[in-house]
Amino acid sequence: MNGIIVLDKPGSISSAGAVNRVKRLLERGVKIGHAGTLDPFATGVLLLLIGKATKSSQMLMNQPKRYEATIKLGATTATDDPDSPEIPVPGASQPSLENVEAAAAKFVGTISQRPPAFSALKISGRRAYKLARSGQPVDLKARDIRIDAIEIVSWQWPLLRMRIDCGRGTYVRAIARDLGEALKTGGYLTELRRTRIGPFGIDRAVTLERLEKDGIGPHLCPVSFADAENAQQGRQDDQHQR
Known about the structure:
- The chain is an alpha+beta fold.
- The protein is built from seven helices and 13 strands.
- It has two domains: 3-63 and 198-226, Pseudouridine synthase (2-Layer Sandwich); 65-196, Pseudouridine synthase, CATH 3.30.2350.
- β8 (122-123) and β9 form a beta hairpin.
């Protein structure tokens, strides 16, 4: 059994937890992994790799991604998401749509982004989030990431909904944090849904409940390097049209 399951990951479960639930449906000894972690509160496309498809992990992780994100301005959290208490920003005032659009536009392209302190990146062999939770200082260096497009879907203070096309290694939580800083309002991510990785969109995704009912076979997609090439060409065409 070899191929990809395009899973619609629910909230309140980790990517590893989703893998473990599906692993129980496989015959003993069949390999399973995933390409591109989603935070527990986030939902949407999680690619589960079965059998020989696990060898395609790096290829798939390098594919462009699309997210639907909701950002709350006027407040922050320690984790830049809803997993920690909200901290209101005193004196934060509502920016105009024009100001929001202008600030968001500055994030498009190759930019330097500082990862969130509460992340799985390692510092001297220890996960950053474990250091942060224990009150120790977390010094994560900024790194270059690529954001292909940001579209404002809706804006009604204090909630901003955005559609983001980006490359590997992008933290949408960090975009929420940095956009809030740019607007002098503070900001954090309240909802996140990944709707695409390369050619694998949410329209092809299956829920855990459906997998457990139907079994793996009916929902297994063959892995194809042609899919990756089509995704890359599609991203280049989108950029040309813009």
